[in-house]
Amino acid sequence: MKKTKWIILSVTVLLALFALVEINNLSMQIRKAELEKVKLWANAISQKAQLVNYSEEFFSSVALDEHRKMELYTNILRSFDRMGENADADFSLDYVRYIVDSCETAIIITGADSIITVPSELAGQKLEGERLEEFSHNEPFHYNIWGMKMTLYYKESKMYTELRHVLDGFNRSFLDEITNNGVLVPVLVVDSLQGEVLASGNMQQREFGTPEALASRLCEMEEDNDPIEFRLPDGQRAYLFYENTPMLKAMRWVPLLYLFVLAVLLLVSYHLFRTARSMEQNRIWVGMAKETAHQLGTPISSLMAWTQYLDGKQFTAEYSEEINKDLKRLETVAHRFSKIGSVPELEYEGVCAAINNALAYLKTRSSRKVKFVTSFPEEDIRVPLNSYLFEWVIENVCKNAIDAMEGAGTFTVVVSSDSRHVYVDLGDTGRGMSPSVQKRVFDSGFSTKPRGWGLGLSLAKRIINEYHKGRIYVKYSVEGQGTVFRIVLNR
Questions:
Q1: Domain chopping of the chain, boundaries
Q2: Which of 112, 219, 229, 394 is the most buried (most CB within 10 A)?
Q3: What sign for the dihedral angle of Cα 431, 432, 435, 439?
Q4: What digits encode the pLDDT tens for the residues 74-112?
Q5: pTM greater than the 0.70 cutoff
Q6: Which fold has domain 2-159?
């Protein structure tokens, strides 16, 4: 039983360690996957920031290019003024219209009092109101032609305007996509001085509501990941601070939590084992006390009966022999219990002789309906043995067999051997045992009898296994047919 408990405990510890390793590997894999998500998200944000910067550079370049074109157109128009009266007015007007029509940039040319001269469909109208505001985003060009003061207004081309509108929406959603990320990364977008929060995501306001709290929070986030520097659409430099996801942080504590649970389970298991061992010892002590009383009861009762019987009668040799038997039995019982708990001395003794001594005592105290059959080799086999304890084993098995046969049947003892072992088979024709009973028949405190103590076979196993280094087990048992116990001793 003790060995089985240690085996169970060892297997439990090994399984727990294996589970710990597997959980740690799983947590590392999940942590790695989460970290990859964070890295991919941060890389996407960095690339998108670069795209925002590139778009701003692109529009600045396009705006500069259109400005240069307008400057070129203005210079051409100024050249007509330098040509003076020699210039062909119709040709000049047609050329200006050609320039305007061929240019993708919307142009309005006004004369005195802001009266529109070009384009022709707006000629004569005054540039004012919403139209003036629309064409005033860029600085106009002023020039003279044939003594008249002219002003050229322009705005971005239609393609430029549409593209600008799309990219402006893209830029406006940039911070929203940073802060409202799909991987639940806590983020803070701060200005270049890291003193003002421009945007935040997956965080509570109280975490960065004060300058001190913000500085502390930024330091914590920087320990997880380096901040990403980028420029906002308005050209302002900003920094993106982010940290690992809550799941990623939680996975760090999974192995420690499992170790704590494992420690608690081991403590509980140890307590249960200790309690079970204590209960088992208590059962053994109670059983030993009852067994002692039972062992001593028979010879003591017999001696008391002899005392009453001999009162007033003449003492004879026959009476003396019977009384000596009971005294010998008391001595045997005392020897048996003195050996329990200590290391008994083993001497080379005959197995068959020890069995005969045990059976001789049992035959006189058993029902006549119980038949004892023995099959021994011609020459008694001598093995390292403690006869007091070995006879006790035979008696315990035999008493259980008589109870199983309900006082009527055959008890068979067969002794055989080979070069290394001696085999003692103890069989009966009783009611037999079920497989579940066979598994527990040697457990302390287990008994199928209503008033049984569950100690006899437990002591038998202890005597054979621990003291004689042999084995005792159920060789055969069928309900309704009988049982055979086998004892194996080393030669």
A1: 2-159, 180-248, 340-490
A2: 394
A3: positive
A4: 777 677 666 655 555 555 556 555 655 555 677 788 887
A5: no
A6: Beta-Lactamase (3.30.450)
